[in-house]
Prior knowledge:
The protein is an all-alpha fold. The protein has 11 helices and no strands.
Amino acid sequence: MSEMPSIQDKLKTVWGNVDNIFLPNDSWWNDDDKCHKIQEKLSNLNPEHEKTSEHIDLVYKVLSRGVNLTQAAIDWEHPAIGSERNFTGKARGIQWRLVIAYSGFEISTKGLINKLEGQLNVEDFKSLINKCQSNLPNYSPLNPPASDSSKSLEKWLSKEEESIAKFLGLRSKDIHALKDWMLKSRPIQTWEDAFFLAKAFRNCTTHGFLVPRKVQDWKLKPIFKVLTENLAEILIAALEKIES
Length: 244
């Protein structure tokens, strides 16, 4: 019985197939039929994609950058920033692996749903996940890790700390996602909720609210790995809608 392909191999394969729809590179500039063919594929995610060569060129460049960033993140087998022998360095690497994957996912989403200008909002991400839901398996519930640090968790997500979190740039939805999962122990049961938890941890990391020591103490490293791969799985499902 053959082994199931890894997340890394799946993303490489599906992006290779999508890439072939566009190739040869720059061929869309002088070929209206090629533009029409690509636009038809992109319309599986948003029928408002344009048939113009300028639009096709921009979408291709955005997707290439986004997919390759997410691929780089999931290919990073032993993430560490600083000493690989240091628990803090490993925890920090795990955090930034998620940050890189999220950045790639966010950039890709802009190209996929045809929002090439401005910032993405909550509904944009929900729309993408909903449109590729049929290509995703049922989500395996993700429970918070068993931890003996409930007091420090409560302090981290207290009203006083929440004001600091908002000052550092976290959104209310990020804080609610963390509280529901970490304090109220509500398991993540959908791909949409997994995305929002990944987004919350990404923002905690980039805004300096979650330090590596807490990732280590609260046994969050495996969770960061799962969420990183979840982002890649959603991206794979979205690319499959174009490939089909």
